[in-house]
Amino acid sequence: MKFSISALVLVSLAGVSDAFVARSQKVSVPTKLNVATEPPTVKVPVLDEVCETTGVTLKRYMNEVAMLNPELTELTTLFGAIDTACKAITNMVKRSQLPSSETLGYQGEVNVQGEDQKKLDVITNDVLKRALRFTGRMGVLASEEEDVPVDLVNTDKDAVFTETNKYVAVFDPLDGSSNVDAGIPTGTIIGIYEHDENCSMDESCIGEDCTAQELNCLTNTLQPGTSLVAAAYCLYSSSTFFVLTIGAGTYGFTLDENLGEFVLSHPNMKIPETSSIMSFNEANTHMWDEPLQKVVDGWKNGTGKSGKTFSSRYVGSMVGDVHRTLLYGGVFGYPGDAKNPNGKLRLLYEGAPMSFIMEQAGGVSTTGKERVMDIKPDYVHQRVPMVMGSKNDVEEVIEAYKNAE
Fold first, then answer.
1. Which residues form the Fructose-1-6-bisphosphatase class I N-terminal domain (predicted)?
2. Which domains does the chain have, with CATH numbers?
3. Which residues contact 136 (CB under 8 A, 6 or more apart)?
């Protein structure tokens, strides 16, 4: 990786492991479709070419972010926990098919969405909960495997949040777990919000009053994607990848197993604006909305706006499909259909975090009719139709829906 951006030199560090200069670059995130809010400005480290030989770990990168943005200092601790959890999960996934593994097969239970839980679903959920709990920075989380939002730190109703419990986490601990037995890539998706500082518990409350206040605090997880502070995913595949955004671009790290560290491998990722790859479950084509059917038919036949004939690439694991889309360009989607009008992806802990990452890489994410990041969830496990990826191609879908109105 090589950077030549002129910026203010903040610090020069000596030593073999620290043999690079960190600089600050203010990144104003461009306004996306239908965005009413001002684009955030976050300083990100710009690293000299020396890092090609020394490597920049995720831990070092987040330390630089904290130095440049003191208000994000606690994210360093949070991402340190997520980093460790992802390393633990990648080892579990690798060993899951061994006869001696205790993670093989189904748990024998069904989650709140009516899906059979594999042992790995439950185990990875616990790994992330424990990792986040012991940071001392978490108040509440919402997970695919939990029926309702969970208070991580305290059991007493008068201590749901404290001053140190600054963040709310939402996550899917093991996306694609239904295919893990076949060696299909799986992943972890996570979004980080700040909790509402006005959300507090009255120490003198009793009975139903306490329950109502607690519910109000827990529903703080129901925030739109535009309120995300950070988002990340970890892909467990031929390599283990960690991709994150703090609202100033998208950055990818790869696990160096010799070092036991995630090392920056894809700085400031940018998705191509036009592509020739689509990633849908085309078995459902006949049940899609007519505007989407027409666009996809045009892509197949080479009669779409780009004039390119698209090829199809579909893994069936959101993290795997989105990661490939980010790197090569393309369009990934799980739209609504006659059977599932709202699709199958969950807005809070799949749709919004992945949309944040995609938009920060220059892509677009939509339901066809509205920006996914703008939607405020009504409940934790709400589903949302999604089409995301290369800007020009996704905008072709948006335009088709507008013309159909």
1. 58-267
2. 58-199+215-269 (3.30.540.10), 277-403 (3.40.190.80)
3. 77, 153, 164, 165
